[in-house]
Amino acid sequence: MKILDTHHHLWDLSMRSYDWISELPENESVKINKNFLLNDLDYLAKINKVTGTICVQAHQSEEEALWLLEIAKNSDLIKGVVCWVDLKDSDIGYSLDKYQSYDKFCGIRHVWHDEKNEDWIMDSKVIAGLKVLSERLINFDFLVRPNHLKYIFEVYEKIPKLNGVIDHIAKPNIKDNTFDPWAKDIYDLSKIDSLSCKVSGMVEEMNESQSISVLKTYTNHIIKSFGPNKIMYGSNWPVCLTKKSYSEVLDIAKKISINVDSEKFFYTNGKNFYLN
Question: Of the candidates 238, 178, 207, 209, which has an alpha carbon nearest to the alpha carbon of residue 25?
Fold first, then answer.
């Protein structure tokens, strides 16, 4: 079975500071407050039989974006890179031109859920930037929590053809077994033809006492809502290491997706979204 890991990161702490790492609980930050580079990824991919990956931004800078694109250019494993760009920049096209000169550029992401204003994405300048992405057929990753989902409806009213994906099933409050209103919003959003969902970043939302079986309540809802063609696997490595190893996360994904087409879930859907 081919596996395309549609969500992982790389970082070199000697090059730039990732402040969000130090903001994690100490028992978690200590596990990832170090460099994670291509050789580390290559090793994990080999032992876990991962066919290819999509590398996603973790620092809101063009410097990191260009660094990742250069790494991917010389990697057989990394098939695409999701970069950051200033969506409010009136000259956004200049940055996108640079990114699009790289064959492996495949999308844009902004860390929306850390913005001070919950409705950040509704800023007219952000909407203008997203419209440019849509016009250029550039994918967009929605990094959100449940309270942000209501705004995604409004985004699609304004930009119906934006090709988007919700990261980490929108980070529901798994620790407290909270299901609604996340579940209703997810179901309603799943009806948007050009919106997909990554089944990723879930173990990070659990507490230590919960068993993996609790995830099925959430993943079954995602699978039922989005259907077999709009869901894709992502590890969220190395952030997942705060709770589980790469191999454990992959094994969990195999168990929770046992009733879906594994080729679509682990490979084809991600390939179709990012690489076609």
Answer: 207
Reported confidence tier of residue 171, pLDDT bands at 50, 70, 90:
very high
Determine the Cα–Cα distance for residues 103 and 37; give it in Å rounded to an integer.
21
* pLDDT grade for 208, boundaries at 50, 70 and 90: confident
Annotated domain spans of the chain: 4-274
What fold, for 4-274? TIM Barrel (3.20.20)
Q: Check if the beta carbon of residue 267 is closer than 8 Å to that of residue 3.
A: yes
Is the whole-model pTM more than 0.85? yes
Confidence at 94, pLDDT banded by 50, 70, 90? very high
- Residue reference for tokens 């299901």: 179
Burial annotation 13-43 (CB, 10 A radius, 16+ → b, else e): eeeeebeebeebeeeeeebbeeebebeebee
Q: 139 by DSSP, 3-state: which?
A: coil
CB count in 10 Å sphere of residue 231? 25
As a dihedral over the C-alpha atoms of residue 230, residue 234, residue 240, residue 241, rounded to 10 degrees, the angle is 160
Distance of CA 173 to the CA centre of its chain: 17
Q: Which of 261, 204, 197 is nearest to 228 (CA)?
A: 261
